[in-house]
Amino acid sequence: MSVVNRRNKIQIVREFKSNESLLSGNSMGIYFDFIDKHKIIIHFKPLNEVFSKEVFISKSGLLVNFERDLIDEDDIEYALDVMSLFNKYPQFVLTHRDEVVKVQQVIHLLKAEFYNDEASYIMLKTLLKVLLLHLIRYQNNNFLKQDLHQKRVFKFLELMETHFLNETNAEFYANTIGISVKRLNQILKEKLNLTAKQIINQRQITEAKRVLIKSNISTKELAFKLGFDSVSSFSRFFK
User: Fold this and answer.
1) ∠ CA 95-99-101, rounded to 5°
2) What whole-number distance in Å separates Cα of residue 34 and Cα of residue 165?
3) Does domain 148-238 fall into CATH 1.10.150.170?
4) Which ranges constitute the DSSP H helices of 164-226?
5) How is the chain split into domains, by residue range?
6) CA-CA distance, 136 to 133, in Å (whole number)?
């Protein structure tokens, strides 16, 4: 992958001053605020969101921002773990010495590869995956029990990742979780500022873009793959 294309997929920003420098709404961001050698505050930007203003107070941090399809190219379990990492809490703090050192080491390798004129896309993707897997492990080790609403958000996201090609109505997800559609939408609006249908639609759009880029599938085949009954209805939706 060329340098230009590579940097459309992943970026590292040392002086992160505003949300305007993010790749896109479909990107996921992690801001590492290095307080001292024993403490890192880690802020997460899930899909379709922006960082809170408190992130820009720090002058010593580093942004790692990447497009969603970098995780979609791997297995579904990994993608779900990453989605959970970004949606659990907006931030968490690392203070355990070994965890801080390990994260710093991986970030150092990722930065070195990113700024290398002959950087490898595969190497960048692999180092990013190593970093995310470490964060998933540390977050699971450090966080308290999630509240009930947050658990329902995770359950919806897990179900949606597995079933969005065949189940596009909120009723399926609400019934599976065991709550009403109205209550599901209230919880999702509170936690993610989107309704179930909006989240499903965004996931379909992401998948459509990924498939169009990665394969020679026709528009008609893609429309039916995503559950549309006609090309015209898919075209109206995509526009």
Assistant:
1) 100
2) 41
3) no
4) 170-177, 181-192, 196-214, 219-225
5) 3-142, 148-238
6) 5
> Contact at 8 Å (CB) between 29 and 45?
yes
Q: Please calculate the CA angle 187-135-112 and round it to the nearest 5 degrees.
A: 130
What is the distance between the alpha carbons of residues 121 and 99, in angstroms, rounded to a whole number?
A: 26
Q: What percent of the chain has pLDDT over 70?
A: 92
The whole-angstrom separation of Cα 191 and Cα 77 is 22
**Cα dihedral value 12, 16, 21, 27, nearest 10:** 50
**Per residue in 182-209, pLDDT tens?**
999 999 888 777 899 988 888 887 777 7
User: CA 237 from chain center: how many Å?
Assistant: 23
Going by C-alpha positions, the residue among 146, 136, 23, 147 that lies closest to residue 80 is 136
**What does each C-alpha distance from 80 to 87, 150, 219 come to in angstroms?**
10, 15, 28
Distances (CA, A) of 68 to 38, 144, 201: 30, 27, 15
**Can you give the pTM of this predicted structure?**
0.64
Distance between CA atoms of residues 1 and 175, nearest Å: 43
DSSP 66: E
Distance, CA of 15 to CA of 61 (rounded, Å): 7
Half-sphere exposure at residue 168, Cβ-oriented, CA atoms within 13 angstroms: 15
Kindly report the backbone phi and psi dihedral angles of residue 121, in degrees, each rounded to the nearest multiple of 5, phi listed first. -60, -40
194 φ, ψ (degrees, to nearest 5): -140, 155
Distance of CA 87 to the CA centre of its chain: 8
